[in-house]
Amino acid sequence: MSRIGRFWNKLANPDRIPKLFALVLGLLLLVGFVIPLDLNVDQIYPRPVPQVQIDEGIPTAPYDRGGEVLKLPGITKAQYPENSKSIGWITSYMSPQAIYVQSISPYFGTSIYSSPGGLIDEILYYTRGFDTILESTILMMSFIIASFLAANFTMNRKKREAPDKNSKYYDPTIESERLSEEE
Amino acid sequence: MDLASLGGNILGTIPLGDIVLYVTPFHLFMFVVVLIFTALIAISRTETQVEGSFGTLKDHKVSVGLSEFKSRRFLAIICGLATAGAMITGDLFNFTLFIALIGIVNVGIVSAVKQIDVLDAAYQYGIIAMICSLPLFGGASIILASTGTLSLFELASMATATPMMIFGSLLLLMGVAGETGIAPFFATKAEMFRTPGSPFILIIHLSSLFVIIRTIEILLIIIKII
């Protein structure tokens, strides 16, 4: 057999595929070290310089985008401003509890309070809201798969449908144990 | 390369904030074909395999249970919808999210089979799909860092492609290659097909074919070889 044929045969083994993939990816990432860095400073979603807001003593640092709720729009850029009419107006909306925590703690922005229902980021929930929907869909699908497997292969094993007697995975000893436990 | 010469004249856009889906004859065709296949899969039932053996009369029937059938049908429909979404999206990060959704649903479709060799192949495929998050999202973020935008309309209007953009596109291609299981990483996927439940297994294959075509189009938009 030729050398290339032997190589193809080795590729046909699923156990080797993750190793091969990791090797190719590692080589490609090594190439990344010699690529000249070319960063565009004109970003569509700008971030403040690190530590600037913390040095200024803003409680919502590093997520402060300016503005005042219901009074003054915040500073947010969008790729297509014509599609986001009320941009800037929902920046940093805070629930009453969040406002209370912010008034007593200077570390509100980096605490756990800032995530669920505290600071609502305009980019995540308004201009790029579809991405957030997709991200939570990915999470939901993985939970559906995990809970289906957990429900059918660990908890409800005994309640499974009667096995097919023609199947090659049919084991009479397991089946008799199953029947005795059901009784 | 501009959008019109790749997909034809733009028939319209679907604006969702910064994420603008756009429709050209090319994308519309692929979108409709994926939806037709998804509808066909949604109304079909699974096959049952009979494994014969030489010299004996012991034929084995390998069938799919009702709860597994329902779970697989649901995941196959989600996979078809995600593929259809990836066909018409006009945003790079949105595209990578659709591909990540396709990858995790593909693992889910074969996660409940009872053949040990198929489960083993699905496990290896799942490992690759997990590794792929790095090049997939890393490539998109490198392109964002070097261009400052994620919209395909803006990327198409850039004058030249810098080496960092090309590196980001290669990482993106690597991520898609692993997530959809194309050559030379197809061995895990070929093993996964050896289980009953044909129409639902086929959406795994169909989604990767369509996603690869769309990926090549997006890479041509970004790196402008032609």
What would your notes on this structure say?
The complex is a heterodimer of chains A (183) and B (226). By secondary structure, chain A is mainly α. Chain A has seven helices and no strands. Among the domains of chain A are: 52-127, no CATH class; 132-182, no CATH class. Chain A has helices spanning 3-11, 17-31, 52-55, 96-104, 122-127, 129-155, 172-182. Chain A is flat and about 75 Å long. Chain A starts with a helix and ends with a helix. With 226 residues, chain B is mostly helical. In chain B, the strands form two sheets. A two-stranded antiparallel sheet of chain B has the order 1-2. In chain B, strands 3-4 form a two-stranded antiparallel ribbon. Chain B starts with a helix and ends with a helix. Chain B has one domain (3-223). Classes of the chains: A mainly alpha (183), B mainly alpha (226). At the A-B interface, helix 2 and helix 6 of A face strand 4, helix 3, helix 4, helix 5 and helix 6 of B.
The stretches of 5 or more residues of chain B where confidence is low (pLDDT under 50) are none
Q: Which percent bin holds the helix content of chain B?
A: 55-70%
Radius of gyration of chain A: 28 Å
Class from secondary-structure proportions of chain A: mainly alpha
Q: Please tally the helical runs of chain A, counting DSSP H or I stretches of 4 or more residues.
A: 7
Percentage of β-strand residues of chain A: under 5%
Number of helical stretches of at least 4 residues of chain B: 10
Which strands sit side by side, in order, in the main sheet of chain B?
1-2
The overall pLDDT of chain A, averaged over residues, is: 79
Mean pLDDT of chain B: 86
Major sheet summary line of chain A: none
Name the overall outline of chain B. Answer: elongated
- Based on DSSP secondary structure assignment, what is the total number of beta strands of chain A? 0
Uncertain segments of chain A are: none
Number of beta-strand segments of chain B = 4
Distance between the termini of chain A: 59 Å
In whole angstroms, the N-to-C terminal distance of chain B is: 7 Å
InterPro entries (chain A): Prd_NiFe_hyd_3_EhaF
Keywords (chain A): Membrane, Transmembrane, Transmembrane helix
Organism (chain B): Methanobrevibacter cuticularis
Keywords (chain B): Membrane, Transmembrane, Transmembrane helix
